[in-house]
Amino acid sequence: MNVPVHLTVNGHDHHLDLDPRTSVLDALRDHLGVMSVKKGCDHGQCGACTVLVDGERILSCLGLAASYDGAQVVTAEGLGTPGNLHPLQQAFLDHDGLQCGYCTPGQVCSAVGMLREVRRGMPSHVTPDVQGAPHLTDAEIRERMSGNLCRCGAYVNIVAAIRDAQHADLAPAEPRPGGQR
């Protein structure tokens, strides 16, 4: 028996009829054709499937779509447009924070979510003073991004990109009229 699920993905409403076991990842890729979300390990271990749901980063392979009924989902392709890249997308390009690119959509979404967490004062495992505001050192960035793996080893450039974009506006670009990004 399927269940109705309403998701707003990259600013566009979608009403789906899904098996209750369908993950957010499979709903995006298999039912909506959103290919920027990558299926890496399908076990929550690599971070390639990271998206933003209601502004928070999640591993979309682990979340059931039915659990996110009514949610706002933003993928890497929903952050910016080719002519107006999101500041983190631009920083990844400027710092050569990618090689094969397979992990990049998840890395970028995770970085947006991570910077939002820092701005809210959320400490990490390496934050020296959990009572004070976190200072975004390279060690903080590495710890906070440790759930996103890069098989190519572009970590040094990914950290540099995030450091460079840490003060940027983290809101996604507005969707284009007519449903095109």
From TrEMBL:
**What are the UniProt keywords, alphabetically?**
2Fe-2S, Iron, Iron-sulfur, Metal-binding, Oxidoreductase
Cellular component GO terms held in the UniProt record: periplasmic space
GO MF annotation list: 2 iron, 2 sulfur cluster binding; metal ion binding; oxidoreductase activity, acting on the aldehyde or oxo group of donors
**All copies of domain 2Fe-2S ferredoxin-type, residue ranges:** 3-79
Reading the lineage from the top rank, the first entry is Bacteria
Quote the PANTHER family the UniProt record gives: ALDEHYDE OXIDOREDUCTASE IRON-SULFUR-BINDING SUBUNIT PAOA, OXIDOREDUCTASE, IRON-SULPHUR BINDING SUBUNIT-RELATED-RELATED
Q: What name does the UniProt record give this protein?
A: (2Fe-2S)-binding domain-containing protein
Q: Which organism is it from?
A: Deinococcus grandis
